[in-house]
């Protein structure tokens, strides 16, 4: 098992280097959280599974603060606050996790210092999939209950995107920035007849990210949508012109993978960014229902082998062509994202063969 031994050795080296950092400055400002979060001992089968996966595939979950992952990711039960503040380093020790989603930035933009703090807690080959703030991706300003109250004047604003996402994420994460995802929230129904104008606005927004790609060529910019009306030739042209790609969004408001693949084919060859957000059985507005049914997210409740196999096929085709793939999975996909990652990894290994 030489590949497995090399993998284990690499993991050990990566985390030895971080020890002095973790014991010093990182914890200085959150001393109210006294306990260090430790990683669970991984199942023996995960080590050779991770070693068999292509180097260009980076998978992970959409966040890391779930107490229900005790025994899977954490060595014991921790509070959500402990995990939110200190869990990232332990998360990154999981053999299959080479990426993580930073979805929290959608609600409140992160600073350069916050991005840099995250980057300092993970090994060099780890990557972040960063979700753009709602200030530039949501057409509506919403109240505390999530209901749209009025039109957002900064929707698709390039200057706001640079100031609140592109520049701080690039400066803070540096080469650990894997993908920036502009997830465009559902449009008001009367806007769906104005897709030409909106696509022009998106095109201008994406142009503002091109300087980032010049500094970090491996970083990927992707657009995820919640209305299929976006999926037009003009949308594809905007992505091609700016070097961006389409984020395969697996969510109840979007059609299954097979119906989204023509967009990826039109952009081929190119990287894959996929966010498996929600099991399709819950429909377009079932996020809260899935959360309630699946909590505490410690087991697969609704396995979806059909979606998993279709996604594994797309991943295998992408990495087989030498392109990178970033895939994050939510607990709301099948009930427990660490177990979903493991099941997807098995499906990928079956298609790509030995690394």
From TrEMBL:
It comes from the Bacteria. InterPro entries: DUF72 (IPR002763), UPF0759_sf (IPR036520). It comes from Alcanivorax xiamenensis. This is DUF72 domain-containing protein. PANTHER family: DUF72 DOMAIN-CONTAINING PROTEIN, UNCHARACTERIZED PROTEIN YECE.
């Amino acid at each position: 098992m030489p590949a497995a031994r090399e993998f284990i050795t690499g993991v050990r080296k990566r985390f030895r280097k971080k020890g002095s950092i973790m014991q010093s400055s990182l914890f200085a400002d959150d001393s109210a959280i006294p306990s260090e979060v430790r990683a669970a001992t991984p199942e023996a089968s995960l080590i050779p599974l991770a070693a068999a996966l292509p180097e260009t595939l980076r998978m992970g979950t959409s966040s890391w603060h779930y107490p229900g992952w005790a025994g899977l990711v954490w060595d014991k039960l921790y509070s959500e606050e402990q995990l939110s503040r200190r869990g990232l380093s332990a998360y990154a020790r999981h053999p299959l996790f080479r990426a993580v989603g930073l979805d929290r930035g959608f609600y409140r933009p992160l600073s350069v210092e916050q991005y840099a703090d995250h980057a300092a807690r993970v090994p060099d080959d780890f990557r972040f999939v960063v979700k753009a703030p709602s200030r530039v991706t949501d057409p509506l300003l919403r109240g505390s209950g999530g209901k749209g109250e009025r039109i957002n004047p900064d929707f698709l604003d390039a200057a706001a995107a640079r100031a609140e996402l592109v520049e701080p994420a690039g400066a803070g994460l540096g080469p650990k920035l894997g993908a920036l995802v502009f997830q465009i929230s559902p449009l008001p129904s009367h806007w769906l007849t104005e897709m030409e104008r909106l696509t022009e606005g998106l095109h201008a927004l994406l142009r503002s990210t091109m300087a980032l790609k010049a500094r970090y060529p491996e970083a990927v910019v992707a657009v995820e949508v919640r209305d299929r009306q976006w999926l037009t030739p003009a949308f594809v042209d905007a992505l091609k012109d700016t070097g961006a790609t389409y984020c395969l969004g697996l969510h109840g408001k979007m059609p299954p993978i097979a119906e989204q693949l023509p967009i990826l084919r039109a952009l081929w060859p190119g990287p894959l960014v996929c966010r498996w957000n929600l099991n399709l059985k819950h429909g377009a507005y079932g996020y809260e229902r899935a959360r309630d049914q699946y909590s505490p997210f410690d087991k697969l409740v609704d396995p979806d082998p059909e979606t998993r196999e279709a996604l594994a096929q797309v991943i295998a085709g992408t990495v087989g062509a030498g392109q990178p793939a970033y895939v994050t999975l939510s607990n709301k996909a099948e009930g427990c994202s660490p177990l979903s990652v493991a099941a997807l990894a098995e499906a990928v290994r079956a298609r790509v063969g030995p690394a």
